[in-house]
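#struct-queue
[09:14] JT: dropping the first one here, sequence first, then the structure tokens:
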Amino acid sequence: MIQVFSQLLSAALGSVGFGLIFNLNRRYLPAAGVGGLLAWLAYLLAANTLHSVFLANLLAGFCAALYAEILARCCNAPSTPFFITAAIPLIPGSTLYYCMNAVVSNDLSAAEHFGEQTFLAALGIAGGMAIAWCLADLSRKLHTLAIRSSGK
């Protein structure tokens, strides 16, 4: 339990830190921290139940993008900075490092394993993001269509 709490706190602080690096408006920094915490929480829950790197990252990327879209509408700001800071904890840095280390050490079976894990994580994040952004775009178009049809 303490390990999970420390992971969630680290995800939130890491997201805030990257928000500072990316010059995110200071009033949005707490929201960036919450986004990182929620994305990592979604990943942890999905990883423990689904036992799939791809599906866990797909769900976490979807949650991060959905959170960013909701926040963008509430704050009347673009969603991209919110998504980037929320997705920071999901970036598969350790598996990429282990992959490159295995390549340098000429351990091709380990490099293949870690490369596959890195690719699946990145593909999952991108897929979740794409699904959430397609749904948000569809929602905007339906809302616009409803407003136009009610005005006639």
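[09:21] JT: and here's the second one, same format:
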Amino acid sequence: MRGIIFAVLGGACITLQGVANARISTDIGTWQAATITQLTGFIIAAIILLFTRDTNVQGIKQVKPMYLAGGAFGAVIIFSEVTAIQQIGVTFTISALLIAQLFLTFLIDSNGWFGVLKQKMKLPQFIGIALMITGVIIMKL
């Protein structure tokens, strides 16, 4: 249950962040909005880290360098989301974003990429993705 609550919270924050960034970008530019978002996110995460004192600096040495660059995707995510919101609106952007996430995680799980446990995909998973895509198409009509 706790995982679902955090997933819902994260999803809500992604949407709110996208809308806020789209608004900021109209005033100062998309890359400037991405920079401010990344900077404020870093500051908040650092403050939370200081308060929780949950540090494992030695563990960084065990992480593959390509995974340490994962945060760099944030800049691309913010730029893409802001641009899409300005072009096609919030609802369609978030819908397309979620389908893209689901499709890529589907590929990752079914192929066992990045060291995740390989999952066998069955008919319900294919039907679920198809229904989501159909729903977005219907919503956009």
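[09:30] RK: nice, looked through the second one.
[09:31] RK: The first helix runs from residue 2 to 28.
[09:31] JT: good to know. The mean pLDDT is 88.
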